[in-house]
Amino acid sequence: MGLFWGIEQPHFYVNEGNISSVLPSNFLPRLDEEQCTGCESCIGSCHIYALSPGQNGEPLLDEEKCIGCGVCVSVCPSGALQLQRKKPLYEIPKDKKEQLRQIAAEKGKL
Ligand code: SF4
Ligand code: SF4
């Protein structure tokens, strides 16, 4: 337990290897390096240790770990982080012909 404003606060421990129960969002934080001051606030805010400091304190993202919660974005004092939508896993076909082409490609027939 830690102290915060004189009140004991629980510590939350995250088992890094066991976050499969958390459904990731479809977003990832993106850094604008021009705006980053290297304060590392974002790095300390990530509960699952998906950020590590680069040479100048800028955050380096481990996309495999990140769940896209946006906490790091909310703590950045300079607006250097933005949440951006991930690329779609699957392109919705425009028409039947495109759908058949996708199916053939998935089956390795193209
Ligand atoms: S979006 Fe959430 S999980 Fe991803 S790096 Fe930021 S704080 Fe960590
Ligand atoms: S909180 Fe913002 S300014 Fe600070 S290191 Fe992270 S991205 Fe850079």
Walkthrough of the structure:
- This protein has one domain: Alpha-Beta Plaits (2-Layer Sandwich), CATH 3.30.70.20.
- 19% of the residues lie in helices and 20% in strands.
- The chain is built from 3 helices and 6 strands.
- A two-stranded antiparallel ribbon has the order 1-2. Strands 3-6 form a two-stranded antiparallel sheet.
- A hairpin with a 5-residue loop joins strand 4 and strand 5.
- The N and C termini lie far apart (59 Å).
Strand content: 15-25%
Principal-axis shape:
elongated
Count the DSSP helices: 3
Number of domains: 1
Largest sheet: 2 strands, antiparallel
Bound molecules: iron/sulfur cluster
Mean pLDDT across the residues is 85
Which terms summarize this structure?
two-stranded antiparallel sheet, 3 helices, single chain, alpha+beta, Alpha-Beta Plaits, two-stranded antiparallel ribbon, 110 residues, binds iron/sulfur cluster, 19% helix
Secondary structure topology:
Layout: E1 2-4, E2 7-9, E3 27-31, H1 41-45, E4 51-53, E5 59-61, H2 71-75, E6 81-85, H3 96-106
Antiparallel strand pairs: 1-2, 3-6, 4-5
The structure holds iron/sulfur cluster (2 copies).
One iron/sulfur cluster (SF4) is lined by residues 29, 45-46, 48, 50-51, 61, 66-72.
Quick take:
The chain is α+β, with helices and mostly antiparallel strands. The protein has helices spanning 41-45, 71-75, 96-106, and strands spanning 2-4, 7-9, 27-31, 51-53, 59-61, 81-85.
